[in-house]
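FW: tagging you since you asked about this chain on Friday. Here's the raw sequence from the shared folder, copied in full. Didn't touch anything.
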Amino acid sequence: MAALKFTLLVLLLYGCSSCSRKSFSNSNQHGFKTKGGIADYSDLNFWAAHPWKWDPSDSVPLPLKKDYRKDSVADVFFIHPTSFTDYTDTAWTAPIDDANLNLKTDNTSILYQASVFNEQCRIFAPRYHQAHLRAFYSHDRAKADTAFEIAYHDVKAAFEYFLKHFNNGRPIIIAAHSQGTLHAGRLLKEFFEGKPMQNRLVCAYLVGMPVPENYFTSLPPCKDSLSTGCFVSWRTFKRDYIDTLFVSKENFKCIVTNPLTWTTTADYAPRTLNTGAVLKNFNKISKEVVDAQVYQNILWTCKPRFFGNIFLTQQNYHIADINFFYTNIRQNVRTRISMFWKH
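HL: got it, structure written out here
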């Protein structure tokens, strides 16, 4: 039943890859094969998003095109969430050259999430041997941890290649969702925190996974919409709902950012502050879809307001963590980049 509810939420918010507004099925992007299953980040096929090729992250919702000004003042390293969710597949780690899985990734998270950052930034999003969704739930922690290690090994290798061959000392934004955030946290600790590269960090958008308040020692949470060299984080649920699978069992305090105010306070932010969500129809901006308020370790919102929401009974809005706040995030990226150059 939980899987059916999750599928309904996916269809209401994203649609399926075959019916999404922009469908990318270029065989050169999705039909490639590895040599021995090893990722080769010198090959653009191993990047779901890269500025040297056209990909779904380059898409701009139609209402935003009029004021769209493409620029490249900063680099975004985006780590996509889990798209390896087929429970009939018993593998713990996804093949990196699975054409159908890569197409699914590109037509969901790369199109609907990574594209948030495409106005003033170059977007780099590596493909990686992602862990299966079950790795988050399974009691077999040894196999789950191994799957996550394999995934992070790829992400780290991609980031090192990005630094050596593409970045050239430019300001960096780290952005991620769900499993991607798990890997992004490790990346920030290993490459940024307490190191010279922290001075090049515009912001880290660590969305969809809990970030304990003591996870970082010197990388602070952003205190407002203007801060740089910091991180933001949130997980979205319907107001008055407490997730019993994970959230209620957490014995630590998390950093939670309200993406309508960009503060970590519990102040209520009304829907009128929500400048636009992107849901199933990529080319439609839906204003005032949800409000937002920090509650303990999570972000609470009202039931989203869009046509067809009568069928939405799911109270965990994980898949829409970014979509609900699409234009607010987009504006915030512009603001933080501007403030970064003023420092």
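FW: The mean pLDDT is 91.
HL: agreed, and Residues 2-342 form one domain.
FW: great, closing this out.
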